[in-house]
Write a structure and sequence with these properties.
Layout lengths: L2 E12 L39 H13 L3 E2 L2 E2 L2 E4 L9 E4 L6 E10 L2 E14 L3 E5 L2 E5 L6 E7 L6 H18 L11 E11 L9 E3 L5 H20 L7 E6 L4 E7 L9 E2 L6 E2 L2 H9 L5 H12 L3 H8 L2 H13 L3 H19 L10 H12 L5 H14 L3 H8 L7 H14 L1 H8 L5 H12 L6 H18 L1
Parallel strand pairs: 12-13
Antiparallel strand pairs: 1-10, 1-11, 2-6, 3-16, 4-5, 4-15, 6-7, 7-10, 8-9, 11-12, 13-14
Amino acid sequence: MQYEAVIGMEVHVHLQTKSKMFCTCDADIFGEPPNSHVCPVCMGMPGSLPVINRQAVESAIMTGLALNCQVAEYSIFARKNYHYPDLPKGYQISQYELPLCREGWIDVEVDGQTCRIGITRAHLEEDAGKLFHGGGSSLVDYNRAGIPALEIVTEPDIRSAEEARQFLIKLRTIVRYLGVSSGDMEKGAMRCEPNVSVRPVGSEEFGVKVEVKNLNSFRAVKQAVEFEIQRQAKVLDTGGAVEQVTMGWDEHRDMTVVQRSKEYAEDYRYFPEPDLPPLEVSRQWVEQIRARLPELPDAKRDRFMRNYGLSRYDAGVLAADRSVAAYFEACVAAYPKAKVVANWITGDLFRRMKETGTDMDTLRITPQGLAELLMLVEKKTISMSTARDIFGVVFETGGSAGGIVAERGLAQISDSGALAEVVAQALADHPDAVQQYFDGKETVAKFLMGQVMRATRGKADPQVVRRLLQAQLQAMRDER
């Protein structure tokens, strides 16, 4: 039987705030010693009282607006009760019945098709601690307990593992654009829990959903969802019934494994948090936050296509990272040939960055430096091959392309008189190649051109060399 996947996503995004969600502990915990960022509030000590982090609320509202959500004027925090060692209070402060943001959407592209994925809710909560298992024991680090998190829950609108992956990529791009989260999945700043079910193609009734917990890479999400779709289809094909359980992803065996039976909302015994007042958000506050929204990736991509004549692909690549987009526009401001700039950024620059592990924050070649290099090529001061060599030097040192050309004597030779002598010498030095050319093997011209470029250490203008070669070869042919 043919089956259709029905997938919803729960994504937990750490918000970049100075302090934790309900206390003054430093929220910058990555790489810090275990249990060094804790206090009576985030440890749930008797008598301690939580206080709502205003910056976290603003970040949540900004994200909700970027996700086309409605922002509630009135929402409440609730206690979500469950007992695990990484939850010091024995409950988590979250939102349930009245979330801060709801009813939004994101558009993603898969195989040239645009898919709209509904956002059911985006609500604030505190994160739990982190457990470490090994050596026959378990340890817990409470540094993460109380970190502000935004849980984003989608409608069951996703139909494939690739759609799920593209949704996460798009979501991470948005939160990075907003500056509300690093979205770094490897560091736990963004975790994903897909809910996967399958149903016969054409059926309107949902199948039994299975949750896959705490996936921390785009690759893991795609693999886990693909495996779970196949597993459920096999269960149904063999006459079995899919059980509603919580699964984990075993990356060593590339398979999902049962962790526990699935909890339901009533298992958590939600009730309003008695130590926190309702969260009231005025329309004026929302509009102030809306006014601070940056140009978002889709809008920037469309503007790049419209204003710079870029293809949808090139515009999308450049707009996918806010710092890359800013670099591109700064370069175009200095050298207004957008397609040339785009080719160098997505080609040579990205390749060098990947090889060296460089990011935009530590990049030494400035937009003005790249523009200077491209201007030297346009003026034929240097050849394209020389430009690529100089690019490598500027990338490593941050120096001036013009200064490097002058210092190393790399200026391109375009003087026809000087080059004519070099061409004539190359023809004289390789009579066999010249004869092969006359015998009809015209590809030998590339070899002869290479000899001229070698003699000039790559500084000869290729167009001038090509013209002179053709002229001198033709003259030799006519003399025969």
